[in-house]
Amino acid sequence: MKQTVPATWLVYCREGFERDAQAELLYHAAQHGADVKGVAGAGWAGVTRTDGGTANALQRGVAFSRLVFARQSLVALPALTLSRDDRLSAIAGQVSEAGWSFDSIWHETPDTNDGKSLARLAKALTRPLQGLLKKRGALRRKAGGRRLHLLWLSGSQVQLGMSFPGNRSELAGGIRRLRLPSRAPSRSTLKLEEAWHEFVPREAWDERLAQGMQAADLGAAPGGWTWQLVQRGMHVYAIDNGPMDKALMASGQVEHLGEDGFTWAPPERLDWLVCDIVDKPARVLAMVERWLVQRWCREAVFNLKLPMKKRWEEVQRCLSRLEYALEQAGVDAAVACRHLYHDREEVTVHVRLLTADMPDAESV
Which residues of 296-313 are buried (b: 16+ CB within 10 A; e: fewer)? Predict the structure, then answer.
C-alpha cells in the first residue's frame, strides 16, 4: 500500500484574511528552514512542503497560542475529490494510506456562506463514516487525543487534517460564539469577553478579573467594554469625550472623564487597562507602551486597527516594537496577540506584567 504523508500545514481563518494567515505560516516555515509553497482557499490557508518532508515538525514547532490569524492548526493530506455515489470509501482509503488513528472526528466547513451550506451533508455522513473507520481500526477509544478533521470544501471535495492535544483550538471551526448581552451598550462588548476567554484561563478569572479591582477604559463611549468590567465588579475610569450609556452610569461603578485617552494618566496603579480606540496602530501602541513601561496597570487588552494590505507584516512590526520597548525598560511581561472571531479589521493584544516589584499608588 502506498504511503500518503501530511505535507500541508493548514489553518482556518476569517474569510478575507487568507493572505495574512498564509504570510504568517510562510514566515514560520522560513524560520524552520523548510521549502514550502503557499496554498489557500476561502476561509483557510496553508503551506505545503516541496522538499519531501511532512508538515508535522512545522505544526508542532509553532505553538497554536503564538499564531495570530489562525483559528485552527492542522497537518493535512492532499485534498480529495469524491464521487457523489460513494464519498466514504475514498475518505477511509486515504486515512488507511496515511496510517492515521484517532479518537474523535470533526466535520467542519469554512466560515463562509458557501461553507455553511455544506453542514447538512457533513451531518448526514457523520455516523456512517464513524462506523466505517471503527471497523478499519482507525477510530479508537484511546488514540492519544488525536482528532481527525474533515474540512468540507464542496460537496465533492474534502481535505483531511489531524490536530494534536495542546496545540490546537478545542472549539469547532476554532470559533468562540458568544451571545450578545441584551443590556450591553454595543456589540463591541463581545470583543473584550472573547479576549478574556482567549488570554485568561477560566480557572484564573476569580483572581485576575476580581470584584473590587480598578480598571481604565480608554475610548470608552458608549461603554461596551466598560460594561464587561462592571459585570466583573470592577470600578472603571471611562475615558472618552463622547456620552456613556445611562444605565451603565447608574451602576455607580463608573467614573466618566471627558478627556483624551492618549494623554490621560491614572491617579493610581490600576489592575486593568482596556482600549478599543480607532486610530493608527503606531499611535495606539505608543500610548499603551507608556502605560506598561510606567507599570500603571497589571494587565492590558487593546486592539490594533490594521491596514488593508500586509496585515501580518504590520502585526509583526507592532509586536516586535512592543516587546523591544518592554525589554529596554526592564519590564518582564507576557505578550499575546490574536485575530479574534469578533474582531474585524483589527487584532487584539494582551499583555500581562510578570515583574514582582510593582510601584506603589503614590508613585504613579
Answer: bbbbbbbbbbbeeeebbe
Q: Per-domain residue ranges for the chain?
A: 8-174, 189-363
271 is in an annotated binding site: no
Judge contact between 176 and 202, C-beta under 8 A: no
| pLDDT tens-digit readout, 108-166 | 999 998 888 898 898 999 999 999 999 999 999 999 999 999 999 999 999 999 999 99
Orientation angle between helical segments 224-231 and 189-199, nearest 10 degrees:
50
Query: Does residue 59 contact residue 167 with C-beta atoms inside 8 Å?
Result: yes
| Residue 242 marked in a binding site | no
Helix (H, G, I), strand (E, B) or coil at 171: coil
The CATH code that applies to domain 8-174 is 3.30.2300.20
- Exposure on the CB side of residue 352, measured as CA atoms within 13 A: 11
* Active-site residue set: 305
Consult the annotation and say whether 332 binds a ligand.
Answer: no
Residues of the chain predicted below pLDDT 50: 1, 361-363
Do 185 and 222 form a contact (C-beta atoms < 8 A)? yes
- 23 annotated binding-site participant: no
β-sheet with 346-353: strand ranges across = 254-257, 235-239, 214-218, 270-275, 297-305, 346-353, 333-338
Q: Which CATH number fits domain 189-363: 3.40.30.10, 3.30.1490.100, 3.40.50.150, 3.50.50.60?
A: 3.40.50.150
Q: Is 233 annotated as a binding residue?
A: no
Q: What is the pTM of this model?
A: 0.94
The pLDDT, as a whole number, for residue 114 is 87
